[in-house]
Amino acid sequence: MTRKDEGAAVMQMLACSSECHIEALIRKGFPITTIDRLSLQGIDAVAVGLLSARRLRYCRQHQKCFTPEESDHLYRLCTTLIKARSVFGDQGNALTWLRRPHASFGGVSALTAVVTTPGYECVKDELERMRSGYFA
After folding, report:
1. What mean pLDDT is reported for the chain?
2. Based on the structure, what is the number of domains in the chain?
């Protein structure tokens, strides 16, 4: 999947207009409804450490968009789910793998690992190895 395809898949997952460019949307900040869309996909951004419950409450109460940094993290979560679905063939198997702790991610789940840039790169590499058939 190309980066452009990933961006389009994220836009579709988050029900954003395809007229927007993903980088511009991240810089502007994802709307609060992004969390609800992720929740429908089976991902709890607070539980994996992406946002604090306090920050989420504040954004909801004040109808604030997420910061560019928070939006970038949300984008990582979305692309990770999209890649995992591609590797495992369906949402259920993808979420099972994403939620399970892995030694290769320092004993945390892939969903927790993607909160940091090094963790995201590690998860992305692992999914690429699996997609390519390398399980060592």
Report:
1. 87
2. 1
